[in-house]
Amino acid sequence: MMVDAAIRVVVRTSVRHRKMLLAGVAVASFAAAPSIRHIHVDLNSRALVPRSDPRLASSDRARALFGDRDSVVVGVTTTRDVLSDESVSLIDRLSTAVARTEGIDPDSVRSLATMTVVWGDGDGIHVGQLGPRAAAEHRVDAHVVEQIDRLGLADGLLLSPARDATIIVGNADDGADRYRLLRDLERLAASPTGRGTHIWLTGTALAQAALGRAAALDVLRLVPIVLVVLVLLLTLAFRSVPLALVAVTEVGISLLWTVIAITWSGSSVVVTMIVLPVLLIVVGVSDDIYVIRRYLRDAAASPHLPRERLLTDSISSGARPIILTTLSTAGGLLTLATTNLRPLQLFGIYGALAVATSGLMVFTVVPALLATIAAPRPPRASERRWTAPVPTFRAAAATAAAAILVAGVALTAAQKVFVDDSWIRNLPAASSVARGDRALNDRLGGTTSVDFVVRLRDGVGFDGRDGLRRLLLIQEAFAKGPHVGAVTSVATDVLRILAALTGRPYRDVVASLRVGPGGTEPIGDAEIQQCLLGMASADPRRLSAALDADYRQAHLTVYVRNGDYQRVAAVLETARRLERDPASGVLQLQPFGDGWISYFTVSALVGDQARSIGLALLLDGLLLSVFFRSLRTGVIGMLPAAMTVALAFGAIGVAALPLGIANAMFASIVIGVGMDFPVHVLATYERACAGGLRCGAALHGTLEEAGLSVTTSAIALALAFLVLLASSTAPTMQLGLVVAFGLATTGVLTLVLLPAALVLWNGRSKPEEDLKTAAT
Amino acid sequence: MTSSPAASVLLLCAVLVPSVIAPRDTPEGGSADAIVRAYNARDFGAPGWRRVSVELLNAGRLVRSFDVVNVWRRTGASVDTLYLLNAPLGLRGTAYLQREAEAVGGFGVDLYLPTAKGRVIALGGDMLAHGLLGSNFSYEDLRWLLPQESIQYRVAGATSMLGRRAVLLDARCAPGTCAGWRRARFYLATEDRFLVGADYFAADDAGSPPFKRLRVELATRAGNVWTAQRMRMDAANQQSTVITLRAFHFGGAPSSDDWYAATGLPGLLARLPASLPDAFDLPARHE
After folding, report:
1. Is B70 an 8 Å CB contact of chain A?
2. What whole-number percentage of chain A has pLDDT above 70?
3. How does pLDDT run across A53-84, given as a tens digit for each residue?
4. Do residues B219 and B201 lie in contact, with contact meaning Cβ atoms separated by under 8 Å?
5. What is the rounded CA–CA span in Å between residue A734 and residue A725?
6. CA distances (Å), A391 to each of A300, A753, A758, B52, in order?
7. What pLDDT does residue B14 have?
8. Is the Cβ of B126 closer than 8 Å to some Cβ of chain A?
9. C-alpha closest to that of A367 among A131, A618, A14
10. Which of A11, A217, A312, A485 is the least buried, fewest Cβ under 10 Å from its Cβ?
11. Which pairs with CB-CB distance under 8 Å and at least 24 residues apart come from B163-172?
């Protein structure tokens, strides 16, 4: 009762001092709004994963050991030979430009131009980089081309087997401005080339920037569309533009203040949070719909009541379910803060803050705005008469049986749900990075890399025949993977150096090492040590990126074509198999790098969100039980949202939609937002029962009073979420579709399953008889 | 003079830039160019030989070591240096020939790896910033002479190092002409014209920390020639290289052209021990 009294005071004060309140809110908003320019967007994929996770710490150590960072890839495809003088000259020019680009470690840049080549015959051979050599000679000499073929350098890493594509790859500095990097490199990619030659962009660092840019553009585009759609829908529902604007203004202010809070707290916005504004607008408007509907109904019932009194009575009498739905939605979002993942934590914390702010606004700004605008037109008679039917006991039993059956089918179908995601696939198909990635994946060994630190049993090092042979066999085991385009390690480098020094074809040298000491031209420890020394002399950076200082830990990279979660998972499974096989000699294959971090991020985000579903349902059930002082009501109140989540997972399973970072959030949203529907129905029902009505009559009144609000709200929210279909990214579109489906389903289940459950829980009492009794 | 094992401990010189005492020509107070000219004109014991151990350390832990015999000669304004690896066993016979002249582009390195079956590799100019044997000492750091072309020197002050007064020579390299560094500070012992330290910077701004730092930790004198007994190059990545002199002889080593031809590198292991038995008397370390 104290809460009711306090809300009453707040509402009355807001209405009475509406001008002062609205002016204060407006001034505060305008004064603080400019600060949101300073909001920081963190695009580093490292920002998405928990800092404290020991696997990530190991990955960081491995990255530091081998100098690995987020990659930037500039590709060149041509209808002619990439090794033509013209193409090599272009690659040399691009390599220099990439190395000079701010945010790229210049020493990390590798390309055909920086590739170490050997030339000359007879007693003397020369070692140097191809680019400067070709530039000095003004041509790529035939000997170098022959050597590239002989050494098997067209293996899909730097050079495609068909010699129609090549890449320039570099490392982005950790603190580099990825947007600027993408902008600079897009300018570079737009530079003129010969006919049939194209420059492409890809790599994790650029994909992050492209995704961030797409998401930001989505927000700029979708927020106005969502607002317009909501204004239209609410105008239709309330038959009043000003009332629709009241709701939209309230959520706009809540959102603005949340963004200001994010800025002032110094938190970074990560990619997964960029969809938050759209989400919060839709979530925030939900309570407004109930408040305004109730206000319209009360205004029609008491047309002569003074506005201040009407607003105070109407809003404060319906405050309890709004407080509960605010608490349940904020609580549901806050459960995300219990996860170990920063993007989910931030999403949960600031989402909860926005919902709480919106809840506060419902009792302050909304009544102030309602008092300011013209008096509402009473609802039409047809609207007032509309109600969902109260089920008979038999119908309720049939509904329950059908629900159990459908839930069973849905849960069975949900077993087919699988996790999959990819930075690149999340990009708009027309983005420069997505196009570049497609073009290069078609021709090269793959642009997704999964890195491993290889440690062998018994401390065997890689500066001897045994260690290097084992490394070669591990490499070959990975290469058998269905989507693996190339695998590389120091074994490849050493054997190529040996082939170059001895003039033997690379494949023969590989065969010699594979066969072992019994071969015709065996490779011994001395040869390997000399090649390592040659590598240290000619390309020490490459050596330090391939081996640790002790030569006991090797860096192995597996390139995956069109890499995604599933394909990376297959590579990791191969690693686990090798670790289990004593014959492989592997002590440990520790994954790290771009591909693994993406895999780990998706796995952790989706897993944590899936786990948070249970917590959200439990929390909401507890809140409902406490609020209604009945465990039974708490359980009944959970049914629509729980059933919807089961149905949605079933639908996702049947549609074979992959569950990824973005669309895995749907369950939390559906539970958080969809819980509003049963709360309003149950609160109205409880009030009706408290008024002395029996089950059937109470239900009839409830459905008459809350049914239209639930229907309006479900339709408006579902349609607003469908606006996400206009997003440029597939996961956001999927999220919009699944949430819209979920909210519409929750609305229907609230009006069908919830009454059936209430009828059944009330035992043998016949609702139809209650209705007759009430009528008499 | 031929060093005994005991004497070698005391009379160490290193691969980098040994130097000479020339008190009569002390350039203190002279211009930077005069200091560089005087430094390059010093007697560094050519033709001479020495045997050193090169130890690569990672975070203070020894990870690899090499036993190297080093022979050099001076011909007018040019210096040729041979490096022959004596250990580890797998690398025995690996040889380098380093040629340096004061003229622009007068620096080159040839490498011979026994597995190359008689073929010698000429390292491209873009590789001369890389470390010898994978150490922190680049080929360019191992020059006997301070290059005068394309580098601007300036006397930046005086300091004390290794118990000596040293002049601080600030060197700025024209972009694209020096491999590995843009700016360096050389510490030259004023009295002895002996390089006792150096700091190397990747950028023109010497305000940022150097990416590697050379310090002579112990030095000795043989006749007019001062040389480092132990010196250490520390890099920013916790990697260090320590070069320790084990034996040496100044003023007596092969100096004819056939020794210093790239084509001679494959046969160096067969020829040099016979010509310089004292240099190979010591047991190889870290076999």
Report:
1. no
2. 90
3. 777 788 888 888 888 888 899 999 999 888 88
4. no
5. 7
6. 28, 10, 10, 97
7. 32
8. yes
9. A14
10. A217
11. B164/B189, B164/B190, B164/B191, B164/B192, B164/B194, B164/B196, B165/B28, B165/B189, B165/B190, B165/B191, B166/B190, B166/B196, B166/B197, B167/B27, B167/B28, B167/B35, B169/B32, B169/B35, B169/B36, B170/B206, B171/B146, B172/B204
**Residues A426/A730, Cβ–Cβ less than 8 Å:** yes
- Chains A and B form CB pairs within 8 A to the count of 107
B23 versus A215: the higher-pLDDT residue is: A215
Q: Which of A183-187, A669-673, B205-209 has the lowest mean pLDDT?
A: B205-209
Nearest CA-CA distance, residue A523 and chain B, Å: 10
Per-residue model confidence as pLDDT tens digits over A190-249: 988 878 899 999 988 888 888 878 877 888 888 888 888 889 988 888 888 999 999 989
Q: Does A64 touch chain B if contact means CB atoms closer than 8 Å? A: no
Q: How far is B62 from chain A (nearest CA, A)?
A: 9
On the question of pLDDT at A41 being above 60, the answer is yes
| Alpha helix positions (H), A190-303 | 204-238, 241-265, 276-301
pLDDT of A27 over the 90 cut: yes
Quote the mean pLDDT of chain A: 84
Residue positions counted in chain A: 776
Instruction: Write out the two tokens for A708.
Output: 């239209």
**Taking CB atoms and an 8 Å limit, are A536 and B133 in contact across chains?**
yes
How many angstroms separate the CA of residue B110 from the nearest CA in chain A? Answer: 9
pLDDT at residue B71 in the model:
95
Question: Distance between CA atoms of A669 and A283, rounded to whole angstroms?
Answer: 9
CA-nearest residue of chain A to B60?
Answer: A549
Q: Tokens standing for A37? A: 């320019």
Counting Cβ atoms within 10 Å, is residue A515 exposed (0-12), middle (13-18) or buried (19+)?
A: middle
A622 compared with A318, residue with greater pLDDT: A622
The answer, yes or no, to whether residue B266 has pLDDT greater than 70, is yes
Q: Among A124, A129, A530, select the one facing B114 at the smallest CB separation.
A: A530
CA dihedral A308, A310, A315, A316 (to 10 degrees): 80
Surface-to-core class of residue A146, CB atoms within 10 Å of its CB (0-12 exposed, 13-18 middle, 19+ buried): exposed
Cβ-based burial of A336 (10 A; exposed 0-12, middle 13-18, buried ≥19): buried
Distance CA(A678)–CA(A329), nearest Å, equals: 13
Sign (positive or negative) of CA dihedral A481, A485, A487, A492: positive
Q: Are the C-beta atoms of residues A570 and A481 closer than 8 Å to each other? A: yes
Contacts of A126 in chain B (CB under 8 A): 121-122, 124
- Measured CA to CA, the distance from residue B229 to residue A362 in angstroms comes to 82
Tell me the torsion sign for CA atoms A406, A407, A412, A415: positive
DSSP state of B209: P
- Is B97 in the A-facing interface, judged by CB distances under 8 Å? no
pLDDT-derived band at A520, boundaries 50, 70, 90? low
Q: Does B179 touch chain A (CB under 8 A)?
A: no
Residue found under tokens 């305000």 = B207
Q: Is A580 exposed, middle or buried (0-12, 13-18, 19+ CB in 10 A)?
A: exposed
CA–CA distance, B44 with B249 (Å, rounded to integer): 11
Of B88, B126, B132, the CB nearest to A132: B126
Other C-beta atoms lying within 10 Å of the C-beta of residue A458:
7
Q: Is the pLDDT of residue A33 over 60?
A: yes
CA distance linking residue B80 with residue B49, whole number of Å: 12
| A185 has a pLDDT exceeding 90 | yes
Of A143-147, A323-327, A403-407, which gets the smallest average pLDDT?
A: A143-147
Q: Output the DSSP codes for B227-266.
A: EEEEEEEEETTSEEEEEEEEEEESS-S--SGGGGSGGGGG
> Which single residue is written with the structure tokens 């582009």?
B105
Digit-coded pLDDT (tens) for A112-127: 888 777 666 555 666 7
